[in-house]
Amino acid sequence: MRRLAVLLAAALALAPSAAAARDPVRTSIFFYPWYGNPAWDGGYQHWQQRGVRPLASAFFPLRGLYSSSDRRVLAAQMREIAATGVDQVSVSWWGRGSPEDARLLAVLRAARAYGLDVAAHVEPYGGRVARLEHDIRYLAGLGITDMHVYAVDEAPPEAWRAANERVAGVRTFAQTGLVGLAARGGFDGFYTYDILVHGGQKFRRLCEQAHRQGLLCAPSVGPGYDARRAVGDLRVKPRRNGATYDAMWTAALRADADLVTITSYNEWHEGTQVEPARAHRTPSGARYAGYDGAYGARGKLAPFAYLRRTTYWTKRFDAMPR
Length: 322
Description:
- By secondary structure, the chain is α/β, with parallel strands linked by helices.
- It has one domain: TIM Barrel (Alpha-Beta Barrel), CATH 3.20.20.
- It is 34% helix and 15% strand.
- Strands 8-7-6-5-4-3-1-12-9 form a nine-stranded parallel β-sheet. Strands 2-13 form a two-stranded antiparallel ribbon. A two-stranded antiparallel ribbon has the order 10-11.
């Protein structure tokens, strides 16, 4: 865990004018600022999917159905992430004028207060390819210099290259399992995000391909996947009480990854989150899981099992030669 003095120094280094002076990012965690509730937003936002209430997830947040507009919640979340030793928060962003864009400044302030760098997870919003250069410049003006571009297979590599070649001072990463596509698109690196499709057994091969082509390798690790309630996807990657998360981290470190990306801090619908969870049962009888048993944790310690394990792995990764 970083000491307070280190956190304060890092926070100052994250100001846009001093971005070049900060330590290199080694770990980045995907973060979703799209949740709302009646107290803050006039109604529930994003928690329900396909009519599933109160939450379309296999798990239930320890914080309950919180609002991403609540700055106290954002501060607590960033404090948790910083305590794990993760360097960067990659914020889901759906273009100018989106709800996620409206909350971006609050996320930036909260993250920087705890010494965290912020990247943009550039989602597939309408007209994204044509607007990419303009949007990257907008984000860079906020001090965001890493862009994770999700689902780049929506356009040919040449379209991405045209935008990437016209911007400077930023790093762009393509979400893909095809390293050649990232190279042809003019990206600086790639990440996999999808921990169901891109398991750890692929990481070494993908990193070797990336390094041969001069790209950064940033494979994505995660604790598991279960989106049955949210989208009806019957595919499940069980958590195995933490063994899945450990296996993916082990594979990333053995693959000589340049960065490790983590799927995710709080994507509750796909069940990839490491944010604290508790078991819950609704009056109608619907059951939600917590993390009881993960890494042997029980009772009050169980909700924090995956955050503690993230700390373990970031320390191991940071200790490796760069």
